[in-house]
Amino acid sequence: MSSPLGSSGAVDVVLALGSNLGSRRATLDEAVAALARAGGLEVVAVSPVVETVAVTVDGPDPSAPRYLNAVALARTTLDPDALLDLAHRVEAELGRVRDRRWGDRTIDIDIVTMDGVLRDDARLVLPHPRAAERDFVLEPWLLLDPDAELPGAGRVDALLAGLRAGAADADMAVAVDGAAGAGAGAAGAGADAATGAEGAER
Ligand SMILES: Nc1ncnc2c1ncn2[C@@H]1O[C@H](COP(=O)(O)OP(=O)(O)OP(=O)(O)O)[C@@H](O)[C@H]1O
Ligand SMILES: Nc1nc2c(c(=O)[nH]1)N=C(CO)CN2
């Protein structure tokens, strides 16, 4: 089967998605579908969905609406700026309002890594500077790819184990659902670990 990207110049990217407002699961699915529809990006696989406690600027907040988080693996011919523009466009389409840092949001799409790209400027930092500390990124990523590595930080399984060893709230990720974006290479790995997030929209 031929790739919609053709054969030239595509690189692997890892995208982290999160939603803690509205119909979270539907929004994640719509975000994956919108990314998959966009020119220059092919969604290869999507992780199971993990329900997580909101991390705010003051730390984990069990009283805030919980997030559904997922990770998507994709291939793209877009350059990093164009990929960030696409992420922002999809966020805007899905009602993302930027008010507070780490505030509640219908959808957040972060670029975790882009193969071979190291970048650090006001607009974009790659790999994502906080991915290594975020169980809400590492857990779904690991479910999708047990051999995943975060460039410059190490294996995702080791990073997650380190976080869990250090965290009093090691069970912040409270439930695992099926993969987001079914039909876009969604992976079912880890769905057996579900503890009831299915239909958990409130
Ligand atoms: N790797 C990256 N992925 C996405 N945005 C990035 C990245 N590096 C830098 N940014 C910049 O961060 C800005 C703020 O992004 P956003 O509002 O999604 O932040 P946030 O999700 O609240 O916090 P965080 O960046 O810690 O995830 C974006 O407009 C973008 O310019
Ligand atoms: N649980 C959880 N907390 C967050 C998340 C997220 O995706 N999941 N995203 C944030 C900003 O990117 C801030 N806090």
Automatic annotation (TrEMBL):
Keywords recorded for this protein, A-Z: ATP-binding, Folate biosynthesis, Kinase, Nucleotide-binding, Transferase
BP terms from Gene Ontology: folic acid biosynthetic process; tetrahydrofolate biosynthetic process
InterPro entries: Hppk, Hppk_sf
Gene Ontology molecular function: 2-amino-4-hydroxy-6-hydroxymethyldihydropteridine diphosphokinase activity; ATP binding; kinase activity
Organism, scientific name: Mycetocola reblochoni REB411
Enzyme Commission no: 2.7.6.3
Pathway: Cofactor biosynthesis; tetrahydrofolate biosynthesis; 2-amino-4-hydroxy-6-hydroxymethyl-7,8-dihydropteridine diphosphate from 7,8-dihydroneopterin triphosphate: step 4/4
Pfam families, per the entry: HPPK (PF01288)
The keyword Nucleotide-binding is annotated on this UniProt entry: yes
Name listed for the protein in its UniProt record: 2-amino-4-hydroxy-6-hydroxymethyldihydropteridine diphosphokinase
Keyword Manganese appears in the UniProt entry: no
Reactions the enzyme catalyzes: 6-hydroxymethyl-7,8-dihydropterin + ATP = (7,8-dihydropterin-6-yl)methyl diphosphate + AMP + H(+)
Location of the 7,8-dihydro-6-hydroxymethylpterin-pyrophosphokinase domain: 14-145
CDD domains registered for this protein in UniProt: HPPK
Top EC class of this enzyme: transferase
